[in-house]
Amino acid sequence: MTEIQKKTLIGCVCAVSCEILFGLSYLFTKKITSDVDAVTLLGWRFLLAFVMMNILLIAGYININIKKKHLPSLLKIAVLQPIAYFTCETFGIQMTTASESGSIIACIPIASLVASILFLQKKPTRFQTSGICLTVVGVIVCVTAKGFESSFSGIGYIMLCMAVLSYSLYCVSAEKAYKTTSIEKTYVMIACGACFFATMAIARSIAAGTVVDLFMLPFQNTVFLFSILCLCQARLHFAVCNTYKLQLVNHFLQHQPMRIHYIS
């Protein structure tokens, strides 16, 4: 197997794994946001991921060497994903029905394809375009199989559309930042997400006078604890697969042209 074939195989495996984890995180987000507010969920989700990733760093499982000149591009990526994307996605999912949110989020492949054409000047082939359209149709069929319910939430629709836009721009930015490793991108993304969402959650709880409830929530609500663990995708050797999921996306973008990303 040649080096190019090896990288192609790695990229395809990462893409498939990424989308499986992406789908699972969407399901758990939809389940828990009916009981817990979005800010609290995001705060705990990324704080836990950041803590576990630092454990991996201290234990020597990962190595990070971020240069100062690369920091602006990494921060740009972090603003788009996870800050903008997860904020818009979580609030959008909370305000809309499962069929609505699933159908809109399914448009990410098309938005990413358009972004790659506009910003990367990469034109897809007919086969690639057909594959993306088939994927989108398949997702929409799956989420609407039990009937399409409408919430008529204009704000919810706007939030979901902004999530689609931010994710497509993230894919472009991640591919442009080819001088940084996938784990470096992932670490900055998780760190920025933890700082942003945890600060929001603490500020909100202080204003509401529920700081103690915020910190005790995972210990008092087993469903919430299970959900954030699943959202973090905890595994034996990597501990936090939410971190691993983002690493898979970045690793795939490093080895594969973005326009092929969603065909997998």
Structural commentary:
It is globular and about 55 Å long. The chain is mainly alpha-helical. The chain contains eleven helices and no strands. It has helices spanning 3-32, 38-59, 71-95, 98-105, 108-119, 126-143, 154-176, 182-208, 211-220, 222-231, 241-255. It is 76% helix and 0% strand. Helix 1 (3-32) runs antiparallel to helix 10.
List the helices and strands and how they pair.
Layout lengths: L2 H30 L5 H22 L11 H25 L2 H8 L2 H12 L6 H18 L10 H23 L5 H27 L2 H10 L1 H10 L9 H15 L9
Helix pairs in contact: 1-10, 1-11, 2-8, 2-10, 3-7, 3-8, 4-6, 4-7, 5-7, 8-9, 8-11, 9-10
How far is the N terminus from the C terminus?
Answer: 21 Å
Rg, Cα atoms, Å: 18 Å
Query: Averaging pLDDT over every residue, what do you get?
Result: 77
H and E order: HHHHHHHHHHH
Uncertain parts? 234-244, 257-264
Q: What percentage of amino acids are in beta strands?
A: under 5%
The total count of helices amounts to 11
Q: Outline the biggest β-sheet.
A: none
Shape: globular
| Strand runs, count | 0
Q: Helicity range of the residues? A: over 70%
Instruction: Give the class from helix and strand content and strand pairing.
Output: mainly alpha
